[in-house]
Write a structure and sequence with these properties.
With about 240 residues, this protein is an alpha+beta fold. It has a domain at about 10-140 and about 165-200. Helix content is about 25%, strand content about 25%. The chain has seven helices and eight strands, in the order αββαβαβααββααββ. It has helices at about 10-15, 40-50, 75-80, 95-105, 105-110, 175-185, 205-225, and strands spanning about 30, 35-40, 65-70, 85-90, 130-145, 155-170, 230-235, 235-244. The strands form two sheets. Strands 3, 4, 5, 6, 7 and 8 form a six-stranded antiparallel sheet that branches. Helix 4 packs antiparallel against helix 6 (about 175-185). It is globular, with a radius of gyration of 17 Å. The protein starts with 9 loop residues before the first helix and ends with a strand.
Amino acid sequence: MSPVLPLPAPWIDGLPRDVRGFVVPAEAGWEDGAPVLAKVGQDRKVALGMRRACGVCGFVLPKGRAVYRAFAQVDAAHIRMHEREQSHDDSGPLHLSCVLYSAMVCPYLRERTARMSRTGINPGGRRGTRAAVIGFAGFGLLVPMHAYKSSQPAMPKFAYVQMVEDIPYVDGADLTDRYEAAVRSDRNIIDMSVPRMFWTGEEPPDLKRALRADVKAISRRAENSEFVYTQMIENEGEFGALPL
């Protein structure tokens, strides 16, 4: 039997769909004119993060409110045990309603037996029996140290600070009540009167302009030593955290 999927909130419902009917997140990668949901668009994630925009709906994440990501079982356990104060992830922050919707409709996040596709993020990786949506008090960019001086700087990761909420689940349907409550709550904080941050296609001109501006801003802040802290990431070297 096919799972009963939730109705998208108004700020999600306006997003484009892929050929299968899945909502296309703002941070999704694009290839050959089509979205690839298994990949994160590296340019998009930086442009969204620099503007404090949600990686799903593209609307602004208000300051002073928790931000969220969904994690597979192993990653969630690692954060609980070792990274409750300072964590990091390749992808950007989301509203609670947006991440819960994703966890309920994305086949990988929804199903306890799911594996990632052989392409994209963590090829073939298992979701695990007990995944989790985790909330953090704040976030920033993790910039590869000195990479901003290169003509082709490496893409940042995201820093997440102070774990404030932990929502474990087995199946996506377990999140139904929490999702409905989050939609009611997020209605009060998501401003749909302004354009959402969303770009279609591989290299739209306005995304290129945004990224050029972001690289300059990141470089300027890094040169002014605005790093909150630095950390070593295995096999990738030292990164400096810039708050957003």
